[in-house]
Amino acid sequence: MFHRTPATTTRWSGWALRILLLAGPTWAVGCGPSVVNLTNAAWVPSPVPVKYDDRAFATVLRENVKDGLVDYNHLKAHPEPLQQYLGLISVVGPTTQPGDFTSRSSQLAYFINAYNAGVLQAVLYRGIPETVHDVRLPPFEKSHSIVVDGVPRTLAVLRQLVWANSSADARAEFALCDAALGSPPLAGQPIRPDTLRRDLRELAAAAMANGRQIRIDHERRELLVSRAIFLRQPEFLEFYARQTGSRTGSLLSALLQLAEGPRRDWLNTAVGYRIAAIPFDRNLNLWTRASAGAR
After folding, report:
1. Are 43 and 158 found together in one domain?
2. From residue 286, how far is each of 77, 114, 121, 186 by CA, in Å?
3. Res 50: pLDDT
4. Residues of the chain with pLDDT under 50
5. Which of 115, 222, 235, 269 could form a disulfide with 170 if both were Cys (CB 3.0 to 4.6 A apart)?
């Protein structure tokens, strides 16, 4: 179920990468959907840093993430930290600087942060639309790429790399935000290897307490779950089995293990209920003063 992405992309040297990105966002057209490369040559640091550093991305999240939503208008007005981080990860990563990524945790954190940073840049590139999941357009994740660790990668490929490095930890799904209200909220700080276990535990618990991720309809006897959970049911069941040693648990059992405190008691009221999907809310996860006042 968890596959590593085949190494079929070309790794670019520093000079070749700059030529590739010289014109800024460019479109590549192949058999699949057209792909826009969002990384700009002007963002690539020179000389290349000798160490990976996520402080610029920490600034992005600290200044723009509010209650799990994103102040894209502020980010648009102050894009420099995001551009700095995207430039850094274009040339620094597990292959180009292996000494900084000696553990699976460090690689997983790196690809989670790269994915989330790429999504933010894609929203800005699209002009902060009402949704980036417009069904009339090519799939969002497959039509936008950034250069990561010297290789242009679509957001879809970065998601695959997160799963490939997750050691089958289904909670990694809650660390990925694809800019929709129906998706897990964006964390307010980078994912880091030294706090990875705590971060994933807290993100999973927060998802269990989020009405956009979990609902119960007692009248219909339904446990409603978000797309992030519904499409990954086998992975959540496998994670539960690995954690408990039991292969007889249900999806509810797996979710109960992730929940904390009163939320676990609340989930227990759905024993025996049918699993159903919450309709995916495609609206942009945009923070505004109006949305803050509505909370």
Report:
1. yes
2. 15, 20, 14, 11
3. 83
4. 1-9, 15, 19, 22-23, 29-30
5. 235
Distance CA 44, CA 215 (A): 44
φ and ψ at residue 148, rounded to 5 degrees: -130, 120
Q: What is the pLDDT of residues 160-210, one digit of tens each?
A: 999 999 999 999 999 999 999 999 999 999 999 999 999 999 999 999 999
Q: What is the DSSP letter of 51?
A: S
Can you give the pTM of this predicted structure? 0.89
Domain count within the chain: 2
Structure tokens at 172: 């990694």
Which helix (DSSP H) or strand (DSSP E) does residue 217 occupy? strand 214-217
Range of the domain at 255: 214-280
Of the candidates 107, 85, 84, which has an alpha carbon nearest to the alpha carbon of residue 95? 107
Last residue within a domain, chosen from 128, 161, 192: 192
Is residue 118 within 8 Å of residue 144, measured between CB atoms? yes
* Residue 68 buriedness (CB in 10 A; 0-12 / 13-18 / 19+): middle
CB-based contacts of 291, cutoff 8 Å, min separation 6: 69
Q: Side by side, which strands form the sheet with 26-28? A: 26-28, 35-37, 144-148, 151-154
Domain assignment present for residue 202? The answer is no
